[in-house]
Recover the amino acids of this structure.
């Protein structure tokens, strides 16, 4: 796979705080990448830099470089960026007053002039994209009268008609019920384009992303396969909770579970005390621990 994006030593500092610190990685064509990490880790900020939103890379607090196809992203015009990147971000105040059809038309704009819109091919593309997210019947509805989950699905459909090479999504499963969480992630992961998305749910990220980037306090802590990045020791340390990694019996995907010690079933504690190999990781010991320590790992 050829390299599409190169991020080198990207740092962003605001009032002594490192929003992003010395981040370097490459994105290869066709990869589906999930960016994970705790609240405030810098996930959305990284997406904003990757797409030079509002010309953010011109900000003097930001250093390092982002290159798209071996050319500095700062040299791309806004239209060129829109031709390469389809965005599904969290804040969409500017489109609230529009109809679903108007929102969908916006997805076609990067590739044509406003006056060239609305031919039969465009209409068919829009209908197909809305079909994929189960919302064809809402074409003439007002965007602001849809539920949060329906709005999110319209934005994903708009990104589909934009037909860009790179799809950027900030928390695409926000507001979605469990059916549409899977539906939408399955859809975007099978588009055969490059996808970079922030995901809070590690198990969904693991199931639908081939590569994960773990951020914490603005730093890139880990970059690799879900199995590598969802390492219990690492996650336990960052989130301050015991963590266990399993292979899902149905999907075969790496999964993790977190829990408070007080919520563990008593019978599990007894079983592990005697017989079962323990995979719980103690934050303080930063190593697999034996069962005698396990029940007190949070309180000690
Ligand atoms: N323009 C800004 N001015 C000041 N601080 C900012 C700005 N943008 C982001 N931050 C700070 O940078 C940090 C990272 O924010 P960001 O939104 O990127 O985190 P995140 O990982 O996406 O978080 P979440 O999971 O909560 O959405 C936060 O502490 C945030 O307050």
């Amino acid at each position: 796979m050829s390299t599409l994006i190169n991020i080198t030593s990207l740092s962003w500092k605001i009032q002594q705080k490192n929003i992003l610190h010395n981040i370097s990685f490459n994105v290869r064509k066709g990869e589906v990448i999930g960016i994970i990490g705790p609240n405030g880790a810098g996930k959305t900020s990284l997406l904003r830099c990757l797409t030079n939103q509002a010309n953010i890379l011109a900000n003097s607090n930001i250093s390092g470089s982002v290159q798209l196809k071996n050319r500095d992203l700062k040299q791309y015009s806004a239209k060129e960026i829109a031709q390469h990147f389809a965005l599904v971000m969290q804040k969409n105040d500017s489109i609230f007053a529009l109809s679903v059809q108007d929102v969908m038309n916006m997805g076609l704009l990067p590739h044509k002039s406003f006056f060239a819109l609305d031919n039969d091919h465009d209409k068919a593309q829009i209908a197909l994209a809305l079909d994929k997210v189960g919302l064809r019947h809402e074409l003439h509805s007002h965007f602001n009268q849809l539920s949060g989950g329906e709005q999110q699905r319209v934005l994903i459909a708009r990104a589909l008609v934009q037909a860009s090479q790179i799809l950027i999504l900030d928390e695409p499963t926000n507001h979605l019920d469990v059916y549409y969480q899977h539906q939408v992630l399955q859809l975007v992961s099978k588009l055969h384009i490059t996808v970079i998305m922030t995901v809070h749910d590690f198990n969904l990220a693991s199931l639908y992303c081939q590569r994960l980037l773990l951020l914490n306090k603005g730093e890139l802590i880990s970059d690799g396969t879900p199995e590598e990045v969802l390492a219990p020791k690492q996650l336990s340390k960052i989130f301050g909770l015991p963590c266990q990694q399993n292979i899902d019996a149905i999907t075969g995907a790496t999964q993790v579970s977190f829990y408070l010690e007080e919520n563990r079933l008593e019978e599990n504690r007894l079983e592990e005390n005697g017989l079962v190999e323990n995979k719980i990781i103690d934050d303080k010991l930063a190593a697999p621990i034996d069962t005698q320590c396990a029940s007190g790992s949070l309180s000690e």
